[in-house]
Amino acid sequence: xxxxxxxxxxxxxxxxxxxxxxxxxxxxxxxxxxxxxxxxxxxxxxxxxxxxxxxxxxxxxxxxxxxxxxxxxxxxxxxxxxxxxxxxxxxxxxxxxxxxxxxxxxxxxxxxxxxxxxxxxxxxxxxxxxxxxxxxxxxxxxxxxxxxxxxxxxxxxxxxxxxxxxxxxxxxxxxxxxxxxxxxxxxxxxxxxxxxxxxxxxxxxxxxxxxxxxxxxxxxxxxxxxxxxxxxxxxxxx
Length: 238
Known about the structure:
The protein contains 10 helices and no strands. The protein has helices at residues 2-12, 21-29, 48-51, 54-73, 82-92, 97-124, 133-152, 160-174, 180-188, 195-226.
């Protein structure tokens, strides 16, 4: 049994303690979760003043949102009028329900601010220049999904604030030339905010947009490695 456990452990951890540059590189190369990162980085490239860790903090907020969102889904039903009563139960009845909801809400607000600040720092430092144009586009995509995540979550409490906020937002979408009316129909599943709209916003908020964000973050981190790390490679600097 002991020999079997040792073989099983070695099948997972292929290399020993990373006590040398070679072993450290092998650990990164053979680990599914670490291989998207470069095996070596310059010390000055990971200093706080370079990026203010805004990208990592944004990803941390997204992780908090996923965990708290899954826990909140155990107590929420996306139907009328149960959605409003479930929110009240979370606030007054469920143990630590108010804490979970507030943590989810404030993490969402913080993530929007951090992603915007991350893009601002990237722009002013010129990190969007060649060869990183594609990663800049991925960053814009992640900003859009972040805003949409925040917006689609607005309707889920099914209260007056949610109703009128979504009314304003969908009317703005309808004002878009040529495709505005179709976009509003897709979002609401009809001409008014009703049970169909609540269900569609729930699916977008809990399934479609989180999956798109996970894919975007994965490609974003992978492209950072392929484009030469946090800083531009010497050959690409203007």
